[in-house]
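Researcher: I'd like a structural prediction for the single chain below. Treat it as a standalone chain; there are no partners to consider.
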Amino acid sequence: MFFSKSKNLLGLDIGSSAVKMVELKDLGKGKGFKLEAFGIEPLPPEAVVGGTVMDSGAVIAAIQKLVREGGVKNFNAATSVDGNSVITKRITMTAMSEAELAEAIQWEAGQYIPFDLEEVKIDHQVLDSDPATGNLNVLLVAAKRDLIGEYSSILGQAGLNASAIDIDSFCVQNAYETNYPINGNEVTVLVNVGASTTNLSVMKGTTPLFWRDIQAGGNNYTDTLQREMSLTFDQAEAVKKGEGSEGVRAEQAVPILNAVTEEFGAELKKTIDFFRVTTGENTIHKVVLSGGGTKVPNLDRYLSQFFGIPVEVMNPFQNITVSEREFPVDTINRLAPSFAVAVGLALRKMGA
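Model: Treating it as a single chain, here is the predicted structure.
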């Protein structure tokens, strides 16, 4: 389920602050993709917390509104999950056939997954093989069945078919690979800054090496601004994006935003340092940011100075054809970093 590929799937990223929707059309013959549907619908506070849906009615209503207003006719949808109920591991297995691996992985999974195996859905994908030993490097993924069931049920109640359930980090990598040239020798850190969770993944070329979720994101900025400047939620959200608000100048918040960014950078550094120690990959060539948290002013510039390496903000529509007659291109470009997961979902192809 996690790695299934689906043609013409509707991508629905159910985040903690909004639902994002993308549908793409494969133009075929290597011509890339064309945007067919696009939309974002805010969710009430606490509707989704830590990847768990607390207010399914609000989420279902948001999806139905997006589908209706987007004129969507394809009801085969993909969505994604993250959080503490999802485990991602890179493991090493003895060389064997795919059929043997599928059986062996069920036995091996127990030592890597801190849940009762009856409670989880397990999937795997062979990444590569070690030329010296012939051993297989395998990506192992497990997610709690009740979480998958919850998201599938929400899509069903919204009138859609749950054709694929993916993982946020994989979607971001999918979107990145489709839109940017890949150097097989470069190590890239993808940082997807959501409202409450940041997904960090590291890839060398197109081979994923490491994944980690950090329980920090855009809400840290909003909460701190509300507390330190006595702002409402809406005021803090506007100030966080550098827009200012009635009676509040954006520049007044700069020291507070910088302090939160410094804490966020320190959390990222701890995670990247752990990756370096556990994998032996010491050189990071660049960091690519996505997610709504990228709207914080100068986040990319600060992190670049902090890590001493290039940091850029992803545009997941960079290589996707967007008709100016059908879509507000300026709005799409402004919101683009928030749609990395949704684009990655919409790129999935139906498995056999």
